[in-house]
C-alpha cells in the first residue's frame, strides 16, 4: 500500500513559512496545498508558487482536505491559531517559540489532548550538525566526564528590523534564538537545573533584548554558559566543551574546530615555562604534544528521520515525537526564569 500524503496549509507565508514550503517539496508524505497570510503580497507569492491562497484562517479550517496546519506567523498569534486549528480537528506544527509564556503553551496542549490531534513545535535546530556533534562528543565521553559547556550564537547585524524588535509580538533574542540554544542544552543532560543567573542586553536601545548571557548550573555539577548576541563584530566559537579528559571547540556551522584530549598512553609530562607577556608561566603553557591527542571533528551520520517524517509517524501512531511537548514546556519555564533573574538582578535557585 502506498504511503498516505498529508495535506498542509501554511499560515504566515513570510521567511519561515515559505522555507517550510521549500523543505516539504522533498518530503514524500507531506504536501503544501495552500497558504493563508494577512498580507496580499505574500498571498500573491504563494499563488505564483502554485499554492492555493485561502482568504482567511476559517477558510483553511473549513477545508476538509487540509490535514495539517503549519503556523509560521509572528509569535504573538501562535496560540490563538493553534487552538482554533486543533479545535477544527487539524494536526498542527507550530514555529518556535511556540508561545510567549509556558502557561499559554499548556493551554494549547490541553486542546490537542482533548481533540486527540498531534501538536508539535518546529525545534529544527535539534537536527543541526554542530549540535549533533557536540551531543555525540558528550555522550561518547570523548572528553571524559562533562563539567562545563558554552554555547553561543553571535552576529553583528542587530535584531532583524520587523516584529522581532517589538515586545507585543514576542520579539527579542531570548525568545528568538535563546529558545533554540536552551532547547539544545536541555537535551544534553538529564540533570535537573539548580540555579540560573542571566543578563539581557539592550545595547541597540530596542524595547526587547538584543541578546543575553546566562549561566546555568545543573544538580549534577554541570555548568553552562549560554549566550546570544547581535552586536558582536568578532564572534566567539559556537561551542566550547570541557570534560575531565579534554576540551572541544566547534567554531561555527561549518563544523571547523578541534578536539584535544589527554593521551592515555603517556604519563603526565611536566610543561616547560613559557614567556607570557612580562612574565614566565608554567600553569598557562600549552600541554606537550606527546601528552595529548588531537581528534578530528567528524560529520554525524544522517538523522534517522527528518522533522516532517517524524511528524507523520507520530500522526500514524508509529513513533514518539522527536520534539516532545514536555521538553518544549521545560524550555519555556527556563526562559521565564531567565527573564526573572535578569529583571530581579538575582540568582534564581529553583529546580526544574
Ligand atoms: P516573517 O515576518 O518573515 O513572516 C511572518 C508572516 O506571517 C508574514 O508574511 C505576515 O504577514 C504573516 N502574518 C502575520 N500575522 C498573521 C496572521 N494572523 N495570520 C496569517 N499570517 C500572518 O517572520 P518569520 O521570520 O517567517 O517568522 C515566523 C515564525 O517563524 C516566528 O515564530 C519565528 O520565530 C519562526 N522562525 C523560525 C525559524 C527556525 O529556524 N525554526 C527561523 C525563522 C523564523
From TrEMBL:
Residues 7-121 form the Gfo/Idh/MocA-like oxidoreductase N-terminal domain. Residues 131-248 form the GFO/IDH/MocA-like oxidoreductase domain. It holds the Pfam family GFO_IDH_MocA_C3. Coiled coil: none annotated. GO terms for molecular function: nucleotide binding. It comes from the Bacteria. InterPro entries: Gfo/Idh/MocA-like_OxRdtase_N, Gfo/Idh/MocA_oxidoreduct, GFO_IDH_MocA-like_dom, NAD(P)-bd_dom_sf. PANTHER family: CONSERVED EXPRESSED OXIDOREDUCTASE (EUROFUNG), OXIDOREDUCTASE. This is Putative dehydrogenase.
Amino acid at each position: 500500500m502506498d504511503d498516505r500524503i498529508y495535506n498542509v496549509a501554511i499560515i504566515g507565508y513570510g521567511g519561515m513559512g515559505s522555507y517550510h514550503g521549500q523543505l516539504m517539496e522533498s518530503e514524500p508524505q507531506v504536501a503544501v496545498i495552500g497558504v493563508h497570510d494577512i498580507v496580499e503580497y505574500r498571498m500573491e507569492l504563494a499563488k505564483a508558487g502554485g499554492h492555493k491562497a485561502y482568504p482567511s484562517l476559517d477558510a483553511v479550517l473549513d477545508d476538509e482536505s487540509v490535514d495539517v496546519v503549519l503556523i509560521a506567523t509572528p509569535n504573538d498569534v501562535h496560540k490563538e491559531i493553534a487552538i482554533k486549528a486543533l479545535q477544527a480537528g487539524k494536526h498542527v506544527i507550530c514555529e518556535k517559540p511556540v508561545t510567549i509564556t509556558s502557561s499559554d503553551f499548556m493551554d494549547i496542549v490541553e486542546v490537542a489532548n482533548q481533540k486527540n490531534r498531534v501538536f508539535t513545535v518546529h525545534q529544527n535546530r535539534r537536527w543541526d550538525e554542530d549540535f549533533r556533534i557536540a551531543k555525540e562528543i558528550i555522550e561518547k565521553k570523548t572528553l571524559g566526564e562533562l563539567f562545563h559547556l558554552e554555547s553561543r550564537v553571535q552576529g553583528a547585524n542587530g535584531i532583524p528590523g520587523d516584529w522581532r524588535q517589538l515586545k507585543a509580538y514576542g520579539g527579542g533574542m531570548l525568545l528568538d534564538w535563546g529558545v533554540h540554544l536552551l532547547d539544545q542544552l536541555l537535551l544534553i543532560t538529564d540533570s535537573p537545573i539548580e540555579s540560573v543567573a542571566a543578563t539581557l542586553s539592550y545595547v541597540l536601545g530596542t524595547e526587547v533584548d538584543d541578546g543575553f548571557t546566562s549561566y546555568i548550573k545543573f544538580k549534577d555539577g554541570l555548568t553552562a554558559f549560554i549566550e546570544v548576541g547581535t552586536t558582536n563584530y568578532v564572534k566567539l566559537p559556537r561551542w566550547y566543551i570541557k570534560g575531565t579528559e579534554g576540551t572541544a571547540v566547534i567554531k561555527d556551522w561549518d563544523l571547523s574546530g578541534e578536539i584535544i584530549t589527554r593521551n592515555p598512553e603517556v604519563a603526565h609530562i611536566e610543561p616547560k615555562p613559557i614567556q607570557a607577556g612580562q612574565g614566565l608561566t608554567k600553569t598557562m603553557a600549552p600541554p606537550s604534544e606527546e601528552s595529548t591527542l588531537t581528534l578530528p571533528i567528524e560529520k554525524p551520520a544522517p538523522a534517522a528521520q527528518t522533522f516532517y517524517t517524524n511528524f507523520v509517524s507520530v500522526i500514524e501512531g508509529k513513533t514518539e515525537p522527536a520534539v516532545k511537548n514536555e521538553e518544549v514546556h521545560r524550555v519555556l519555564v527556563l526562559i521565564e526564569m531567565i527573564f526573572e533573574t535578569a529583571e530581579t538582578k538575582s540568582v534564581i535557585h529553583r529546580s526544574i
